[in-house]
Amino acid sequence: MFRPSVARLAVKAASQSTRPAVLTAASRPTLSNTFMRSLSSTPLRANDESNKIKKDPLLAATDKAPQGALSDEGRFARTDESLQIEYPDDEHMPRTQVVQGRGGMHFKRTLAQYSLENKVSLVTGGARGLGLVMSQAIVASGSDLAIVDLNKAEAEEQAQKLVEQFRKENPGLEEEQMPNVTAHYSDVANPDSVNEALADIIAKHGRIDNLVTSAGFTENFDAISYPYDRIQKLWGVNVDGTYLFATGVAKHLMERKVPGSIVMIGSMSGTIVNVPQPQAPYNAAKAAVRHLAASLAVEWAGQGIRVNCISPGYMLTALTRKILDENPELRDKWISLIPTGKMGTPDDLMGPVTFLLSDAAKYITGADLRVDGGYTLT
Ligand SMILES: NC(=O)c1ccc[n+]([C@@H]2O[C@H](COP(=O)([O-])OP(=O)(O)OC[C@H]3O[C@@H](n4cnc5c(N)ncnc54)[C@H](O)[C@@H]3O)[C@@H](O)[C@H]2O)c1
Prior knowledge:
This protein has about 375 residues and is an alpha/beta fold. The protein has two domains: about 20-70, no CATH class; about 90-375, Rossmann fold (3-Layer(aba) Sandwich), CATH 3.40.50.720. The protein has helices at about 5-15, 30-35, 40-55, 55-65, 130-140, 150-170, 190-205, 230-255, 280-300, 320-325, 330-335, 350-355; strands spanning about 120-125, 145-150, 180-185, 210-215, 260-265, 305-310, 370. It has a seven-stranded parallel beta sheet with strand order 3-2-1-4-5-6-7, sandwiched between helices. α5 crosses α12. The longest helix has 29 residues, at about 230-255. The radius of gyration is 26 Å and the shape is elongated. Nicotinamide-adenine-dinucleotide binds near residues 125, 217, 241 and 265.
Protein backbone atom coordinates (compact mmCIF):
# COMPACT_ATOMS: atom_id res chain seq x y z
CA MET A 1 0.00 0.00 0.00
CA PHE A 2 2.78 2.44 0.87
CA ARG A 3 5.23 3.21 -1.86
CA PRO A 4 6.76 6.51 -0.89
CA SER A 5 8.85 7.48 -3.85
CA VAL A 6 11.94 9.12 -2.44
CA ALA A 7 13.15 10.10 -5.90
CA ARG A 8 9.86 11.79 -6.68
CA LEU A 9 9.90 13.62 -3.37
CA ALA A 10 13.42 14.82 -3.98
CA VAL A 11 12.49 16.21 -7.39
CA LYS A 12 9.36 17.81 -5.99
CA ALA A 13 11.14 19.38 -3.04
CA ALA A 14 13.90 20.74 -5.28
CA SER A 15 11.43 22.25 -7.68
CA GLN A 16 9.40 23.79 -4.86
CA SER A 17 12.31 25.30 -2.96
CA THR A 18 12.29 29.05 -2.98
CA ARG A 19 15.37 31.01 -3.87
CA PRO A 20 16.22 34.62 -3.08
CA ALA A 21 15.32 37.11 -5.80
CA VAL A 22 17.97 37.46 -8.49
CA LEU A 23 19.38 40.95 -8.58
CA THR A 24 18.36 42.81 -11.70
CA ALA A 25 20.31 45.61 -13.28
CA ALA A 26 17.87 48.06 -11.67
CA SER A 27 18.52 46.70 -8.23
CA ARG A 28 22.31 46.60 -8.50
CA PRO A 29 23.88 49.27 -6.30
CA THR A 30 24.67 52.50 -8.08
CA LEU A 31 25.69 55.82 -6.65
CA SER A 32 22.15 57.14 -6.78
CA ASN A 33 20.37 54.19 -5.27
CA THR A 34 23.05 53.82 -2.59
CA PHE A 35 22.38 57.44 -1.72
CA MET A 36 18.64 56.73 -1.52
CA ARG A 37 19.21 53.82 0.83
CA SER A 38 17.69 55.36 3.92
CA LEU A 39 14.59 56.55 2.02
CA SER A 40 13.71 53.72 -0.31
CA SER A 41 14.84 50.24 0.32
CA THR A 42 12.97 47.48 -1.53
CA PRO A 43 15.56 46.63 -4.20
CA LEU A 44 18.42 47.46 -1.88
CA ARG A 45 17.14 45.13 0.80
CA ALA A 46 17.55 42.22 -1.63
CA ASN A 47 21.00 43.55 -2.33
CA ASP A 48 21.88 43.75 1.38
CA GLU A 49 20.47 40.28 1.90
CA SER A 50 22.62 38.92 -0.88
CA ASN A 51 25.78 40.48 0.59
CA LYS A 52 24.92 39.18 4.03
CA ILE A 53 24.41 35.70 2.60
CA LYS A 54 27.75 35.84 0.79
CA LYS A 55 29.55 36.77 4.02
CA ASP A 56 27.76 34.34 6.35
CA PRO A 57 29.02 30.79 5.69
CA LEU A 58 25.92 29.20 7.22
CA LEU A 59 23.48 31.28 5.19
CA ALA A 60 25.60 30.83 2.07
CA ALA A 61 25.54 27.06 2.50
CA THR A 62 21.76 27.17 2.74
CA ASP A 63 21.52 29.40 -0.31
CA LYS A 64 24.02 27.57 -2.46
CA ALA A 65 23.66 24.00 -1.34
CA PRO A 66 25.35 21.41 -3.53
CA GLN A 67 23.31 20.01 -6.40
CA GLY A 68 20.48 17.84 -5.08
CA ALA A 69 21.00 18.71 -1.41
CA LEU A 70 18.00 21.05 -1.41
CA SER A 71 15.72 18.04 -1.68
CA ASP A 72 16.34 17.36 2.03
CA GLU A 73 15.29 20.78 3.24
CA GLY A 74 11.93 20.50 4.94
CA ARG A 75 11.57 16.94 3.70
CA PHE A 76 10.73 15.50 7.12
CA ALA A 77 7.97 18.04 7.65
CA ARG A 78 6.04 17.40 4.44
CA THR A 79 3.22 15.13 3.45
CA ASP A 80 3.81 12.58 0.71
CA GLU A 81 0.85 12.21 -1.62
CA SER A 82 2.06 8.83 -2.82
CA LEU A 83 1.01 7.40 0.57
CA GLN A 84 -2.51 6.02 0.27
CA ILE A 85 -4.21 3.97 2.98
CA GLU A 86 -7.86 3.08 2.69
CA TYR A 87 -9.81 2.02 5.80
CA PRO A 88 -10.21 -1.76 5.35
CA ASP A 89 -13.50 -3.62 4.80
CA ASP A 90 -14.93 -5.21 7.90
CA GLU A 91 -13.73 -8.74 7.03
CA HIS A 92 -10.15 -7.46 6.71
CA MET A 93 -10.15 -5.66 10.04
CA PRO A 94 -7.83 -7.19 12.62
CA ARG A 95 -9.42 -8.04 15.97
CA THR A 96 -8.43 -6.59 19.32
CA GLN A 97 -7.46 -8.74 22.33
CA VAL A 98 -8.96 -8.01 25.71
CA VAL A 99 -6.18 -6.61 27.92
CA GLN A 100 -5.07 -8.98 30.70
CA GLY A 101 -3.81 -8.18 34.17
CA ARG A 102 -4.59 -4.45 34.21
CA GLY A 103 -7.74 -4.43 36.36
CA GLY A 104 -8.94 -6.58 39.21
CA MET A 105 -9.09 -6.42 42.95
CA HIS A 106 -6.21 -4.56 44.47
CA PHE A 107 -5.30 -3.31 47.86
CA LYS A 108 -3.20 -0.32 47.00
CA ARG A 109 -4.61 2.82 48.51
CA THR A 110 -6.15 5.11 45.94
CA LEU A 111 -8.80 7.82 45.86
CA ALA A 112 -12.37 6.55 45.94
CA GLN A 113 -13.18 9.45 43.57
CA TYR A 114 -11.70 7.44 40.69
CA SER A 115 -14.37 4.75 41.05
CA LEU A 116 -17.16 4.51 38.47
CA GLU A 117 -19.33 2.28 40.68
CA ASN A 118 -23.11 2.65 40.26
CA LYS A 119 -22.72 4.28 36.85
CA VAL A 120 -23.90 3.21 33.41
CA SER A 121 -21.40 4.09 30.70
CA LEU A 122 -21.70 3.94 26.94
CA VAL A 123 -18.74 3.53 24.58
CA THR A 124 -19.19 3.95 20.83
CA GLY A 125 -16.76 1.96 18.67
CA GLY A 126 -16.25 -0.33 21.68
CA ALA A 127 -15.90 -3.60 19.76
CA ARG A 128 -12.28 -2.95 18.82
CA GLY A 129 -9.13 -0.96 19.29
CA LEU A 130 -9.01 1.89 21.77
CA GLY A 131 -12.77 1.74 22.42
CA LEU A 132 -12.56 -1.88 23.59
CA VAL A 133 -9.65 -1.27 25.97
CA MET A 134 -11.29 1.89 27.38
CA SER A 135 -14.47 -0.19 27.85
CA GLN A 136 -12.44 -2.63 29.89
CA ALA A 137 -11.07 0.18 32.09
CA ILE A 138 -14.60 1.43 32.68
CA VAL A 139 -15.83 -2.05 33.70
CA ALA A 140 -12.75 -2.64 35.90
CA SER A 141 -13.58 0.67 37.62
CA GLY A 142 -17.03 -0.57 38.61
CA SER A 143 -19.39 0.73 35.90
CA ASP A 144 -22.00 -1.13 33.91
CA LEU A 145 -21.41 -0.76 30.20
CA ALA A 146 -23.17 -0.55 26.84
CA ILE A 147 -20.88 -1.17 23.89
CA VAL A 148 -22.15 0.41 20.67
CA ASP A 149 -20.66 -0.59 17.34
CA LEU A 150 -21.38 -1.06 13.66
CA ASN A 151 -20.20 -4.62 14.15
CA LYS A 152 -22.71 -5.98 16.65
CA ALA A 153 -21.52 -9.61 16.53
CA GLU A 154 -18.00 -8.62 17.56
CA ALA A 155 -19.35 -6.20 20.19
CA GLU A 156 -21.39 -9.07 21.72
CA GLU A 157 -18.40 -11.39 21.75
CA GLN A 158 -16.18 -8.75 23.36
CA ALA A 159 -18.87 -7.88 25.93
CA GLN A 160 -18.80 -11.51 27.09
CA LYS A 161 -15.00 -11.55 27.18
CA LEU A 162 -14.92 -8.38 29.27
CA VAL A 163 -17.21 -9.99 31.85
CA GLU A 164 -15.12 -13.21 31.84
CA GLN A 165 -11.93 -11.21 32.35
CA PHE A 166 -13.57 -9.23 35.17
CA ARG A 167 -14.66 -12.49 36.83
CA LYS A 168 -11.07 -13.86 36.65
CA GLU A 169 -9.66 -10.69 38.13
CA ASN A 170 -12.28 -10.47 40.88
CA PRO A 171 -12.71 -14.02 42.24
CA GLY A 172 -15.43 -14.67 44.77
CA LEU A 173 -17.87 -11.98 43.68
CA GLU A 174 -21.58 -12.79 43.85
CA GLU A 175 -23.51 -12.84 40.56
CA GLU A 176 -25.33 -9.59 41.43
CA GLN A 177 -21.97 -7.89 41.91
CA MET A 178 -20.92 -8.69 38.35
CA PRO A 179 -21.07 -5.82 35.84
CA ASN A 180 -23.91 -5.72 33.32
CA VAL A 181 -22.23 -5.38 29.91
CA THR A 182 -24.43 -5.22 26.80
CA ALA A 183 -23.79 -4.82 23.06
CA HIS A 184 -25.83 -2.67 20.68
CA TYR A 185 -25.82 -1.96 16.97
CA SER A 186 -25.56 1.60 15.70
CA ASP A 187 -24.18 3.43 12.71
CA VAL A 188 -23.11 6.54 14.62
CA ALA A 189 -23.39 8.72 11.51
CA ASN A 190 -27.11 7.99 11.15
CA PRO A 191 -29.46 9.97 13.47
CA ASP A 192 -32.23 7.32 13.43
CA SER A 193 -29.77 4.56 14.19
CA VAL A 194 -28.32 6.62 17.07
CA ASN A 195 -31.77 7.25 18.57
CA GLU A 196 -32.69 3.56 18.30
CA ALA A 197 -29.47 2.54 20.05
CA LEU A 198 -30.00 5.07 22.84
CA ALA A 199 -33.58 3.84 23.38
CA ASP A 200 -32.37 0.22 23.44
CA ILE A 201 -29.63 1.02 26.00
CA ILE A 202 -32.02 2.95 28.26
CA ALA A 203 -34.49 0.05 28.05
CA LYS A 204 -31.78 -2.48 29.05
CA HIS A 205 -29.88 -0.42 31.66
CA GLY A 206 -32.53 2.06 32.85
CA ARG A 207 -30.23 5.03 32.29
CA ILE A 208 -26.94 6.37 30.88
CA ASP A 209 -24.51 8.45 33.00
CA ASN A 210 -21.29 8.53 30.99
CA LEU A 211 -20.41 8.56 27.30
CA VAL A 212 -17.15 7.88 25.45
CA THR A 213 -17.21 8.44 21.68
CA SER A 214 -14.49 6.28 20.16
CA ALA A 215 -16.14 5.24 16.85
CA GLY A 216 -13.97 6.82 14.20
CA PHE A 217 -11.48 6.04 11.50
CA THR A 218 -8.75 7.51 9.39
CA GLU A 219 -7.46 6.90 5.89
CA ASN A 220 -4.92 8.56 3.67
CA PHE A 221 -5.35 10.21 0.31
CA ASP A 222 -3.88 13.48 -0.87
CA ALA A 223 -6.48 16.24 -0.72
CA ILE A 224 -6.86 16.68 -4.47
CA SER A 225 -7.62 13.04 -5.20
CA TYR A 226 -9.56 12.18 -2.00
CA PRO A 227 -12.89 10.67 -3.19
CA TYR A 228 -15.62 13.06 -2.02
CA ASP A 229 -17.98 10.28 -0.90
CA ARG A 230 -15.22 8.95 1.36
CA ILE A 231 -14.66 12.41 2.89
CA GLN A 232 -18.37 12.64 3.67
CA LYS A 233 -18.25 9.20 5.28
CA LEU A 234 -15.16 10.15 7.31
CA TRP A 235 -16.74 13.37 8.58
CA GLY A 236 -20.04 11.56 9.13
CA VAL A 237 -18.52 8.98 11.49
CA ASN A 238 -15.90 11.15 13.21
CA VAL A 239 -17.84 14.41 13.57
CA ASP A 240 -21.59 13.75 13.12
CA GLY A 241 -21.29 10.50 15.09
CA THR A 242 -19.66 12.32 18.01
CA TYR A 243 -22.23 15.14 17.86
CA LEU A 244 -25.27 12.85 17.62
CA PHE A 245 -24.28 10.65 20.57
CA ALA A 246 -23.21 13.62 22.70
CA THR A 247 -26.46 15.52 22.16
CA GLY A 248 -28.56 12.36 22.58
CA VAL A 249 -26.94 11.50 25.92
CA ALA A 250 -26.97 15.14 27.12
CA LYS A 251 -30.72 15.39 26.35
CA HIS A 252 -31.32 12.22 28.37
CA LEU A 253 -29.27 13.60 31.31
CA MET A 254 -31.11 16.92 31.19
CA GLU A 255 -34.49 15.16 31.21
CA ARG A 256 -33.35 13.24 34.29
CA LYS A 257 -31.85 16.44 35.78
CA VAL A 258 -28.65 14.60 36.71
CA PRO A 259 -24.98 15.32 36.02
CA GLY A 260 -22.92 13.26 33.59
CA SER A 261 -19.56 13.04 31.93
CA ILE A 262 -18.73 12.84 28.24
CA VAL A 263 -15.29 12.05 26.82
CA MET A 264 -14.75 12.52 23.09
CA ILE A 265 -11.86 10.70 21.46
CA GLY A 266 -10.16 13.23 19.21
CA SER A 267 -6.58 12.90 18.08
CA MET A 268 -3.34 14.84 18.15
CA SER A 269 -4.17 15.27 14.44
CA GLY A 270 -6.71 17.86 15.58
CA THR A 271 -3.82 20.04 16.70
CA ILE A 272 -0.87 19.21 14.44
CA VAL A 273 -0.47 18.08 10.84
CA ASN A 274 0.87 14.54 10.66
CA VAL A 275 3.64 13.67 8.24
CA PRO A 276 4.29 12.03 5.89
CA GLN A 277 0.83 10.53 5.34
CA PRO A 278 -1.65 13.01 3.82
CA GLN A 279 -4.95 13.18 5.75
CA ALA A 280 -6.36 16.71 5.66
CA PRO A 281 -10.05 15.72 6.13
CA TYR A 282 -9.21 13.55 9.17
CA ASN A 283 -7.14 16.32 10.74
CA ALA A 284 -10.01 18.76 10.21
CA ALA A 285 -12.49 16.24 11.67
CA LYS A 286 -10.42 15.81 14.83
CA ALA A 287 -10.00 19.58 15.22
CA ALA A 288 -13.81 19.73 15.03
CA VAL A 289 -14.13 17.06 17.74
CA ARG A 290 -11.76 18.96 20.06
CA HIS A 291 -13.64 22.22 19.64
CA LEU A 292 -17.00 20.50 19.88
CA ALA A 293 -15.95 19.23 23.32
CA ALA A 294 -14.99 22.78 24.37
CA SER A 295 -18.17 24.32 22.95
CA LEU A 296 -20.54 21.77 24.48
CA ALA A 297 -18.65 21.98 27.79
CA VAL A 298 -19.62 25.66 27.95
CA GLU A 299 -23.17 25.09 26.71
CA TRP A 300 -23.91 22.32 29.24
CA ALA A 301 -21.81 23.46 32.21
CA GLY A 302 -24.92 24.82 33.96
CA GLN A 303 -26.54 21.37 33.85
CA GLY A 304 -23.55 19.62 35.42
CA ILE A 305 -22.61 17.82 32.21
CA ARG A 306 -18.85 17.78 31.72
CA VAL A 307 -17.43 17.35 28.22
CA ASN A 308 -13.74 16.66 27.66
CA CYS A 309 -11.57 15.45 24.82
CA ILE A 310 -8.76 12.90 24.82
CA SER A 311 -6.32 13.38 21.95
CA PRO A 312 -4.24 10.25 21.51
CA GLY A 313 -1.00 10.24 19.56
CA TYR A 314 0.15 7.21 17.56
CA MET A 315 -1.31 4.17 19.36
CA LEU A 316 -0.37 0.60 18.57
CA THR A 317 -3.76 -1.03 17.96
CA ALA A 318 -4.28 -4.24 15.96
CA LEU A 319 -5.02 -2.05 12.90
CA THR A 320 -2.02 0.32 13.18
CA ARG A 321 0.24 -2.67 13.92
CA LYS A 322 -0.88 -4.32 10.66
CA ILE A 323 -0.31 -1.13 8.67
CA LEU A 324 3.11 -0.51 10.19
CA ASP A 325 4.24 -4.13 9.83
CA GLU A 326 3.56 -3.72 6.12
CA ASN A 327 5.32 -0.34 6.05
CA PRO A 328 8.35 -0.38 8.34
CA GLU A 329 9.69 2.89 6.92
CA LEU A 330 6.52 4.65 8.11
CA ARG A 331 6.91 3.10 11.59
CA ASP A 332 10.52 4.35 11.83
CA LYS A 333 9.45 7.80 10.71
CA TRP A 334 6.64 8.01 13.27
CA ILE A 335 8.78 6.79 16.15
CA SER A 336 11.55 9.23 15.27
CA LEU A 337 9.07 12.09 15.80
CA ILE A 338 7.88 11.03 19.29
CA PRO A 339 9.92 12.52 22.17
CA THR A 340 9.42 9.41 24.35
CA GLY A 341 10.70 7.32 21.44
CA LYS A 342 7.81 4.87 21.33
CA MET A 343 4.19 4.58 20.25
CA GLY A 344 1.45 4.41 22.85
CA THR A 345 -0.56 1.27 23.55
CA PRO A 346 -4.34 1.19 24.02
CA ASP A 347 -4.00 0.58 27.76
CA ASP A 348 -2.27 3.97 28.04
CA LEU A 349 -5.83 5.35 27.72
CA MET A 350 -7.28 3.28 30.59
CA GLY A 351 -6.25 5.78 33.29
CA PRO A 352 -7.02 8.98 31.34
CA VAL A 353 -10.56 7.91 30.35
CA THR A 354 -11.39 6.66 33.86
CA PHE A 355 -10.06 9.89 35.37
CA LEU A 356 -12.07 12.17 33.07
CA LEU A 357 -15.29 10.19 33.52
CA SER A 358 -14.90 10.03 37.31
CA ASP A 359 -15.53 12.52 40.11
CA ALA A 360 -11.75 12.92 40.39
CA ALA A 361 -12.15 15.26 37.38
CA LYS A 362 -15.32 16.96 38.58
CA TYR A 363 -13.94 20.50 38.06
CA ILE A 364 -12.48 19.64 34.65
CA THR A 365 -14.56 20.42 31.61
CA GLY A 366 -13.69 21.47 28.07
CA ALA A 367 -10.14 20.13 28.47
CA ASP A 368 -8.13 18.43 25.76
CA LEU A 369 -5.98 15.74 27.37
CA ARG A 370 -3.19 14.80 24.99
CA VAL A 371 -1.91 11.26 25.41
CA ASP A 372 0.81 11.36 22.79
CA GLY A 373 4.24 10.75 24.34
CA GLY A 374 4.98 14.45 23.88
CA TYR A 375 4.50 14.42 20.08
CA THR A 376 2.64 17.72 19.96
CA LEU A 377 5.25 19.50 22.08
CA THR A 378 7.93 19.63 19.40
N1 LIG B 1 -5.19 4.17 16.80
C1 LIG B 1 -4.62 5.36 16.84
O1 LIG B 1 -3.39 5.49 16.70
C2 LIG B 1 -5.46 6.58 17.08
C3 LIG B 1 -4.80 7.78 17.36
C4 LIG B 1 -5.54 8.93 17.61
C5 LIG B 1 -6.92 8.86 17.59
N2 LIG B 1 -7.54 7.69 17.31
C6 LIG B 1 -9.00 7.70 17.32
O2 LIG B 1 -9.48 6.76 18.27
C7 LIG B 1 -10.72 6.24 17.86
C8 LIG B 1 -10.66 4.72 17.85
O3 LIG B 1 -9.68 4.32 16.90
P1 LIG B 1 -9.11 2.84 16.86
O4 LIG B 1 -7.70 2.94 16.48
O5 LIG B 1 -9.49 2.14 18.10
O6 LIG B 1 -9.92 2.28 15.61
P2 LIG B 1 -10.47 0.80 15.31
O7 LIG B 1 -10.72 0.75 13.85
O8 LIG B 1 -9.57 -0.23 15.92
O9 LIG B 1 -11.86 0.77 16.09
C9 LIG B 1 -12.92 1.60 15.70
C10 LIG B 1 -14.23 0.96 16.06
O10 LIG B 1 -15.26 1.87 15.62
C11 LIG B 1 -16.26 1.12 14.92
N3 LIG B 1 -16.94 1.96 13.93
C12 LIG B 1 -16.42 2.45 12.78
N4 LIG B 1 -17.37 3.13 12.12
C13 LIG B 1 -18.50 3.08 12.86
C14 LIG B 1 -19.82 3.60 12.71
N5 LIG B 1 -20.19 4.28 11.61
N6 LIG B 1 -20.71 3.35 13.68
C15 LIG B 1 -20.38 2.63 14.77
N7 LIG B 1 -19.15 2.11 14.97
C16 LIG B 1 -18.22 2.34 14.02
C17 LIG B 1 -15.50 -0.03 14.27
O11 LIG B 1 -16.37 -1.12 13.96
C18 LIG B 1 -14.46 -0.37 15.35
O12 LIG B 1 -14.97 -1.32 16.27
C19 LIG B 1 -11.02 6.86 16.50
O13 LIG B 1 -11.85 7.97 16.67
C20 LIG B 1 -9.65 7.28 16.01
O14 LIG B 1 -9.73 8.33 15.11
C21 LIG B 1 -6.84 6.54 17.06
